[in-house]
Amino acid sequence: MNSELSSIIESLIFSAESALSTDRICELLNEFERDEIKAALTELIACYQERGGGFELVEVAGGWQFRTRPAFHSYITRHIKTRTSKFSQSALETLAIIAYRQPITRAEVEHLRGVDCGGVLKSLLEKHLVRILGKKDIPGRPLIYGTSKEFLDIFGLKDLKSLPTLREIQALDEQPQYERQEELQLEPAKAIPVESDLPFE
Amino acid sequence: MNSELSSIIESLIFSAESALSTDRICELLNEFERDEIKAALTELIACYQERGGGFELVEVAGGWQFRTRPAFHSYITRHIKTRTSKFSQSALETLAIIAYRQPITRAEVEHLRGVDCGGVLKSLLEKHLVRILGKKDIPGRPLIYGTSKEFLDIFGLKDLKSLPTLREIQALDEQPQYERQEELQLEPAKAIPVESDLPFE
Amino acid sequence: MPIEAHGHREEHLPLLDGFHEQYSVHLDKFDGPMDLLLHLIKKNELDICDISIAVITRQYLDFIKALKDLNLEVAGDFLVMAATLLQIKSRQLLPQGDQEEPETEEPDPRDELVRRLLEYQQYKEAGMVIGARALLGREVFSRAASEPVLTAAQSVEGPLEVSLFELVDAFRALLQRIPAESFHDVAPGDSLSIADCIIEILSLLQEQDTVQFDDLVRDEYTRERVIVTFLALLELCRLKLIRIFQGSEHGSIWFVPAVAADSSEV
To answer: How far is the C-alpha of C227 from the C-alpha of C230, rounded, in Å?
Structure first.
């Protein structure tokens, strides 16, 4: 039903143990033109969007991967043990702050949350959801943190831009909130489709 | 394109670690009749036979499993041959010792790890993560090792100074110290009504 | 304002009882002072941009007192916020600025807190939305079976993938395994160590061929820094990793890397 090339791409994505980026696919299939590969990939994506079935082709962590549809999880977990545990509110808050504000120091996270975050931060590091990016060039040279590829992978995000839009701050005045905002490298304000069933209030 | 039940079966086979037998599928989906399940499975098998594509549904070891088509194996092995590899624990440990204790001799590394490190050291040198800094001026003139520029690249570090220290990681576990409140940028940190009688009004 | 009625002393106790009932089950639900404040604002149906500090402060302090009465340890972070609230309240009570300078508008003492609350609220909500996603390994699964083709093929030499935390953690695990005296660590105290300084110098020498002593201490010209840097240089010299030059008497000290040995032997 598909072209030969899209079948090859399908087999590559299917057999890879993690998401395969378009770049990586082009690198592996160097006898094909990049345009050809992109066209075949588009064909494949369209085919999976149409088809339904038990699993789908999703774009996560900058690559393509087959994953089961969330709707069937209650059947799957009868057979397979869940590996990812529930995240606590403090872990999610900390993760959200790091995701939106990276690169960020621990002191900045703690200022935003109003509580000590050392323990949470360490557990996020151990789960590989957060990584150390280096040190900030300010006195004391504190460590700076950011989210990892695993974060995108586990939370099923294509990239950092696909993070849910932050609700607009009802600004008190027109002044920027913090000087620190300059560090923001993300533009989460750009319209990002939030999961429809999860509205912000 | 398929029935709901065949999608459920598809998701089960897809996510299972090994081939799923028809009996096992019936056992897992005990709210469905065996005949229904068999019909849905037949539907699924027919669909995959017809479809072509990069992988197929095959019966192996008394169960059902998705496998890539043999025709595409040559493409798939390209990926495994050049995929990102994880560090072994011994390589990671050796690298960590060299990073944190450089300049260091092989004997010193081995003293710390308690095992021979020749092989690991050689592979770290081959990967250009570690380099020879010179020779130590002691009997035998052993080589002295340190980390390389590639080491900094892999970890995304600007310089060796940006390497997080052990103390910084350990500090994550520690109880918050009250001096840290200065970082919170709150002026009233000095006057904390700690004990007993909190003034109401 | 109906809420103000609670301000009377005699009503304080029943209110506290309410807290006991209401919170004893949910104590751990509050994820810090900001979370508690947001809860109080919502409960009192206050506008987050125009909160009544008097109401919020009293209820906040009541809550902390309730925690204490239940013999629960109140985290320092909660007390810091209590201090902040009291400070804002006291600033509100101060007479407004001098009439003589009407143009200098006093900023609302609540502004900073409100800004923090609004921002915190955003991240709290974003955290909830992110946490409600279908997670890999929980609601969504990738293929678990390994391809026979893949297990047969051996990985040759791909790019390495490792995180900094894994590196530090490996080192930490190692240190826990072996007795401390095995280390030739110099001055592991809080201050600058010779080891750190050596690493810094080696790092510099990767980028440039010559380094001047003054460059090393310029940013931090303290007695300690100069001594530690000097000791680090001596150590590197002893290891024959660098060569030191001095142009003239009392002139600047230069050093260059000693020629590295060929890397053929291991």
So the answer is: 5
How far is residue C58's CA from residue C245's CA, in Å, rounded to a whole number? 69
Nearest to A82 among C29, C138, C149 (CB): C138
Q: Quickly list H helices, chain A.
A: 4-15, 22-28, 34-51, 73-76, 89-101, 106-113, 118-126, 149-154
CA distance to partner chain C, nearest, from residue B33 (Å) = 25
Average confidence (pLDDT) over C5-27: 43
CATH number among 3.40.50.720, 1.10.10.10, 3.30.930.10, 3.30.420.40, domain A89-154: 1.10.10.10
Cβ contact B164–A141 (<8 Å): no
Strands C253-257 and C242-246, sheet pairing: antiparallel
Which of C32, C131, C164 is opposite residue A115, by nearest beta carbon? C32
> In chain A, which segments carry CATH 1.10.10.10?
3-79, 89-154
**How many CB contacts within 8 angstroms connect chain A with chain C?**
158
Q: For residue B62, is it left (φ>0), alpha (ψ between -120 and 50) or beta? A: left
Measured between beta carbons, the chain B residues lying within 8 angstroms of A122 are: 169, 172-173
pLDDT average, residue stretch A156-164: 92
Q: Which residues of A touch B8 (CB under 8 A)?
A: 54, 72, 75
Residues B25-57 pLDDT 10s:
999 999 999 999 999 999 999 999 998 899 999
Class of domain B3-79 (CATH, top level)? mainly alpha
What's the complex ipTM?
A: 0.77
- The alpha-helical segments, DSSP class H, found in B52-105 are 73-81, 89-101
Q: What is the mean pLDDT of chain B?
A: 83
Instruction: Please say whether the beta carbons of B29 and B8 come within 8 A.
Output: yes
Query: Which of chain C's residues have a Cβ under 8 Å away from the Cβ of A15?
Result: 147, 149-150
Q: Is the pLDDT of residue A184 over 50?
A: no
Chain B residues 86-145 within an 8 A CB cutoff of chain A: none
Letter string b/e over residues C89-125, b meaning 16 or more CB atoms within 10 A of that residue's CB: beeeeeeeeeeeeeeeeeebbbebbbbbbbbbbbbbb
Q: Do A84 and C137 touch (CB under 8 A)?
A: yes
Question: What DSSP assignment string belongs to C164-177?
Answer: HHHHHHHHHHHHHH
